[in-house]
Amino acid sequence: MDNRLIKLYELLLSYYGEQEWWPANSPYEVMVGAILTQNTAWGNVEMAIARFEGNLNPEFIRDLEMEALKEIIRPSGFFNQKAVYLKSLTSWYSQYNYDASILRREPMEKIRNELLGVKGIGPETADSILLYAFNFPSFVVDTYTMRLCERYSVCAGKNYNAVKQYFEQIFEPDAALYNNFHALIVTHAKTHCRKTPVCAGCPLEETCVRVGVERVSLT
DNA sequence: CGCCAGGGCCATA
DNA sequence: TATGGCCATGGC
């Protein structure tokens, strides 16, 4: 039992409060956002989503010409690949009738494997979709999470799946908790500890002295 | 002006 | 299996 991890979660939660993620109007919009935000600032994703002008649904993207789709999502960057990814994602979703309530009845691992088979969906995007679109208890590991782990010597040198499994071993399967924790990590990173060498006003003040250099324990 | 953002694919060894 | 190059826009 790594009490530092629990302590970290409690610190973040008490400082930032409940996060209420993912910012989207439907499960499908979560999925689209998960693709568009790959290695891309969220502000760019918002611009792209706004350009759908209320038509962000599976049928619309299914019927849209490739070039038109690229033009809409242009502000999110990597639009040539992401247009292909959105098409493949939507094609996969069609087997569930574009219906989240149907998909939710399937076993999480089955859906995860299917998602990983979709072009453009890797581990993080798959877990983001599982957790934030469909409320499955699948912990999301992103660059911020990895950075945090480096900083606090949690799972040092481990890969995606090792870190994911570690978090899921410390915390019981709980979609609400996984949701909050990952959102808190991102919120914290954006607010305080992105690149600044010293985190002024950081809620984890004593642990954020030097980014990526000092390994400070949370005890 | 340079850096980089809520990754993933693909070629290469 | 594990790196490295590549993809592209917009905010700072």
What does this structure look like?
The chain has helices spanning 3-16, 27-36, 42-50, 58-63, 66-73, 79-93, 100-103, 108-116, 123-133, 143-151, 160-170, 175-191. The protein is mostly helical. α1 packs across α12, α2 (27-36) packs antiparallel against α9 and α5 (66-73) packs across α6. The model is unreliable at 209-219 (pLDDT under 50). Helix content is 56%, strand content 0%. The protein binds a DNA duplex (13 and 12 nucleotides) through α2, α3, α6, α9 and α10.
CATH architecture level-2 label of the largest domain:
Orthogonal Bundle
> How many separate domains?
2
The gross shape turns out to be globular
User: How many runs of DSSP E, i.e. beta strands?
Assistant: 0
Biggest pleated sheet: none
Order of helices and strands: HHHHHHHHHHHH
- Name the CATH superfamily assignment of the largest domain: Hypothetical protein, domain 2
Give me the CATH fold name of the largest domain.
Answer: Endonuclease III, domain 1
Give the rounded overall mean pLDDT.
89
Q: In angstroms, what separates the terminal alpha carbons? A: 13 Å
* Name of the CATH first level of the largest domain: Mainly Alpha
Provide the fold topology.
Elements: H1 3-16, H2 27-36, H3 42-50, H4 58-63, H5 66-73, H6 79-93, H7 100-103, H8 108-116, H9 123-133, H10 143-151, H11 160-170, H12 175-191
The protein binds a DNA duplex (13 and 12 nucleotides) through residues 33-35, 37-45, 47-48, 74-82, 85, 119-125, 128, 140, 142-145, 182-183, 185-186, 189-190, 194-195.
